[in-house]
Amino acid sequence: MDNLHLLEAFLLFAAPGPTNALLAAGAVKRQNATTLLAAQACGYGIAAAFWLSLRSLVPAATVQMVQLVAAAWLVILGFRLLAARRAEAIENGGISILATTALNPKAFIYCVAIVPMDIETAALGIAWVTLLVITAVTGSMWLLLGGRLSGGKRMADAISGAALIAFALLLVRP
Question: Greater confidence, 173 or 131?
Answer without folding.
Answer: 131
